[in-house]
Write the structure tokens for this entry.
Amino acid sequence: MTPAGLTAKRGGPLRGRVRAPGDKSISHRALIFGALAEGTTEIEGLLEGEDVLRTAAAMRAFGAEVERLGEGRWRVVGKGGFEEPSDVIDCGNAGTGVRLIMGAAAGFPLAATFTGDASLRSRPMNRVMVPLKDMGAAFLGRSGGRLPLTLRGGELSRIEYRLPEPSAQVKSAVLLAGLHAAGGAKVIEPEPTRDHTERMLRAFGAHVDVRDKGGERHIELPGGQKLVGARVRVPGDPSSAAFPLVAALVTPGSEVTVEDVLLNELRTGLFRTLSEMGAELSVENVRNSGGEQIGDVTARHSRLHGVAVPPERAPSMIDEYPILAIAAAFAEGRTVMRGIGEMRVKESDRIALTAQGLLACGVVVEEEAEGMTVVGTAHGNRPVVGGGRVTTRGDHRIAMSHLILGLAAEAPVSVDEPGMIATSFPGFVELMRGLGAEIA
Ligand code: S3P
């Protein structure tokens, strides 16, 4: 049963070693690639959060065999193509799921109708519809490019697409469609975004050429390529690891290690930023796992100071600004975050909700169209007051971030709709309690 609300309050230090849940981006991709491929894909460490389970159900609906073998262990048997689903595909809360699946399905002769929860139905789908239409797919949807919408796939032609916004979801949708387009696809990224799709294309036997040209990334995917089933080991999600790690940084006496965290540098902008703020973060046991670097990350309670986060770092930490803002609240001085307009079109308007949540907890925040500045409380000279009841609008990362704030603030902090945490971090409350956190 979903609790009506959760409250976090200040207690003792947080201590222990934990493993973050599987990476959400890689989990969605493993299922989609497995379904598109010919043969068997064995996945270990899959994130069994609601977003990813929706993608698993969608892959079944498009004709793949998808079977859960045990905790985090899944087998997908693909037919080398998608069949027409017999019902509406409900992607729940998952922007990654719906956008990547639209790209994957666009090259097949089928019609498919997609929908999602209230949050997903309010998010822009034009960003994938525009390039997919250019390639030859057709869409009928609500005004403003909102779900529900129907895709009619078929024969696609080559596209060369320069991403108008730094979006790995859009890049991935175009590349997945490009697999079945005559002449393939080329994507140009003015700012690099997470590269899990490129890595997985290679792991599933496709050729993809990635070059730096004048500071931009040119990704060339020849058409007419087949994917073959592969083994995928999903590393721990750095976006989820961020919550226990920041909790340790802001809670006196704490030391927390998160094991097996993905260290891909297109995902670890938060760790770089926290280190610049004076965080005692160390990485040990760095190793290669399934084509990605992983390691064990330890955070100790630290005196943090504010920084200006370079705007060009935004794509490598776009989901982490809400939890960075919490760390910034406990730091000395101002933390300036700019070039983060994309945050406004995530599961919620995350700039607005982070600012509202912090203000409700007595933290001064200046909100801008594409940025925000958090005025830190000078590390104990002026405590973070807390005491807010935070509106999450069903956004999992807004909920988790403010619960972390409550663990170190003077007065308890509560969040509404905590059930949504399970979209990306099932077991979050139990994991935090295991470290000593008081969340009830
Ligand atoms: C994701 C890309 C990011 C991120 C999302 C996951 C992905 O979105 O916010 O949580 O797996 O490709 P955008 O690429 O739209 O910025």
User: Anything to note?
Assistant: The two ends are 14 Å apart (CA to CA). The pocket of shikimate-3-phosphate is lined by residues 25, 96, 167-169, 172, 193-194, 318-319, 342, 346 (CB under 6 Å).
